[in-house]
Queue: 3 jobs
Job 1
Amino acid sequence: MKFFLSTALAATACAHTIFQRASINGADQGLLVGVRSPDSNNPIQDVTSANIACNTGFHQPVSSKVINVPAGSKVGAGWGHVIGGAQIPNDPDNPIASSHHGPISAYLAKVDNAATTGTSGLKWFKISEDGLTNSNNQWAVDRMIAAGGWNYFTIPTCIAPGDYLLRVELIALHSAYTSGGAQFYVLSLSFSPSPTRIYDIASPC
């Protein structure tokens, strides 16, 4: 089965983040390998925009790598303040400002070709959601920061063979007290297990 991963998350102007690497069952695939990441770490705040699907303004050249990801694998999404991680030495906002609390979710959409498909009209279904833990008042973003910029989810074992887009969405809620205040950052990742294949990109396709 083939998968394409796109990531969306939310942050503020001076403390944004970019999804820029993936790990498969603990193996880091490398910076921008199989990932289409935007050059800008600015959030998307218009939820009616087509860019909410996979972002826009890809870093060039866009990786054409397809990562092998078997169904049932533990997939990690690696975030950094800018491409490469820290923006300055000892960057306090890497991977993201600690004030940017919010959930992280992952979605799949079945496609004909994960490497070339667009995102218009796709039927997304959620495979993972990490939100607020009431026992310690901790959000998914808090756990991602504590894990050094990584959040993890599992590809379902029941997924049918074929190509998919995999989209990860992180939403920062610190400004969500006003309409349009929630901040989304979106990326995509491509990878493919045997017989599944997944492809990454980080902007709207």
Note: The first helix runs from residue 140 to 146.
Job 2
Amino acid sequence: MAPSKDDEDDYMSMAITEPSSTLGRAETSIQRRARQKREAEVRAHQPSKAESARQTEIKRDEALNTSLPTTSKGYRMMARLGFKAGSALGREGNEHARTEPLGVVVKEGRAGVGLEREKKRKFREEVGAQEGGDESNKKRETEGEFRERQGREREEKRVESMCWGAMKVLEGFESAQDGGEVNGRDDGEGEMGKKTTEKPTKQINVLWRGLVRDRQEKERERRMRYDLHQSLSRHAAYDDPDEDEQDKQAWGREEEEVEDEDHELEEFNQLEPAERLGRMLEYLRNTWRYCFWCKYHYPDEGMEGCPGLTEDEHG
């Protein structure tokens, strides 16, 4: 039988084929060393973390998708109890019986079991609070309402700061009229060579009494901190002739007079900042001929040259 054209050798081909072991030829030493070298390289190759994770995932998926082999001990035990491949476990006729095992959800990461559920719960609460789902937020604030509220808060802070400025102006005028320091310490001679006098807080005009109250609170806190700092290094029986009455009160050798509650000041502070500022500015104009917006003390009652009463009129 003549050989076919497919069986004839292609002498024009440049492909070099590896010698087949089925030809009965023995492996030479060169071939053996080359094979051993390739096997050693395969064994020495260390896969990266990503490759190891990918290989582990592939093996796991293959194991989960493979049915229980009939040669396994578990399958043989179930077969003795009447189990057949493709049928459900348990009593016959049960429509709700499972024919497939429960699915496996692989947990990745090192977090605790309930961490993801807790994160989802907190996220839902935050979203509900932002969208008005919380009972305290009955209606969702729109963008326009938010901007309007922010504008009102900024305006209130600005007016409140102007109230403190107006109180300082009032203090300057009325302290100069009394000829001494109002509710301050007796430090000797005043600017005009007169003894500075201390005026009771409740006799001060309520329009700027809050400034004095705030100053008294800060001074009281400062003396308490000083007392706490010096109490461990100074004996309580030591009497310093240079101490004044307030220092003695700080050291506890003289009882400090506690003033009663000032209901008049509390009522005044409960007013809106704009109303308090308006009363102060009106008092400055009518009593002292001073315009808070012009920053000028006019010589006559007509206050000629002042544009008006409000800030808008002054541009």
Note: The first helix runs from residue 29 to 44.
Job 3
Amino acid sequence: MHPEFQNVTWDLKPSEKGIVKVAEGRGGPINIAYEIHGNGSICLVWVMGLGAMMSSWQRQTKDFGHDQGTKYSSLIFDNRGMGASDKPLMRYSTSEMAKDAIELLNHIGWTSERQLHIIGISMGGMIAQEMAFQEPDRIASLSLVSTASHLVNTVGFVENLRQRINLFIPKDIDIQLAEVKARLFSDEWLAAPDVDGNFPTNGDRFAAQEVKKRRNTEAFTRKGFTLQAIAAGWHHKSPEQLKELGDKVGRERIQVIHGTIDKMITIYHGEMLVKELGGEESGVTRIMFKDRGHVLPMEERKEFARLIEQIVRKTGGK
């Protein structure tokens, strides 16, 4: 085992952590685990994607909640089905998961108008769309990263879902980890020296993170992953709904960020999302990273942080 293996999940101490019961009357109660890092006045809400835990935001948690913890408060949490949150056997949807997040925000007292800077990646970006659709007046900014209004594919939903489940729940761990890396990241980034420590490459560090995650069989389960995958697969926001979202949130508050060689949710989806929100001409910010893949917060950590800080300033954060 590589000596760095035990350090792939960083020991970042939160200023607050807890478990909140949500979904009373919606099939719950469901326990949602959360942490807040930092105690600043600017409220950042980081919404994670399919099959990942809140610790996957650790780079952004450090950048905003620790290095700038007097300026920002960063909320991270495990969606239902993953990590330390409950994994009930029931139909999951991105709209229900958004309600979970909103109830969590109500619990911690982040309820003011135009207070929330929401950043959602992949399935988390789908949940973020639903949050903004449900509570548009509370949104200060909305960053939709590597995500889609709905998934478009040519092989049909069942085959698409099968591919995604096989991607994350392997029979042969070495082969599947190689496939996961290829789907999520650019070859250039994977082959580059580890930017965060002492693994030979970035790809080696990511593989170690995946192995550590999957060894925690209570936090990462086949059931939870599958239920989340179904929610992502069925997510759908129509052009009419996205127009309403843009009208109510304000298009100048929205940015869509995507990698041009994203193999998980292709660039087509990012361009479609920009168009359906009203396009750049209406005020939506469009940022496409050339030759970058799905997990932009890792591949482009510094530039990604700059983009979040930029939209925070643009929409009233100091």
Note: The mean pLDDT is 94.
